[in-house]
Write a structure and sequence with these properties.
elongated
């Protein structure tokens, strides 16, 4: 729940990043951040606060990716 509370405002930041950096660079950076946090979870698992931080980073990186940033590639304006 802590990760979700932090990730909801991060959706707005993700939209801003998509506009600022472009979709490819933003998606690549978010996948990289999510991958690093997934790799770090077993390393920090004995420390509960560090575990929550890694889960929050993972949730924040995954949230903008779940809203399908590539939908603009499929929508045709007539």
């Amino acid at each position: 729940m802590i990760g979700a509370l932090v990730a909801i405002p991060f959706l707005l930041v993700g939209g801003f990043l998509f506009d600022l950096l472009g979709r490819f660079k933003t998606v690549a950076a978010l996948f990289f951040a999510m991958g690093l946090s997934i790799i770090a979870i077993p390393l920090v698992a004995p420390s509960i606060p560090a575990y929550y931080v890694m889960r929050t980073i993972m949730q924040c990186a995954a949230s903008p990716l779940l809203v399908n940033p590539f939908v603009n590639d499929y929508v045709v304006v007539q």
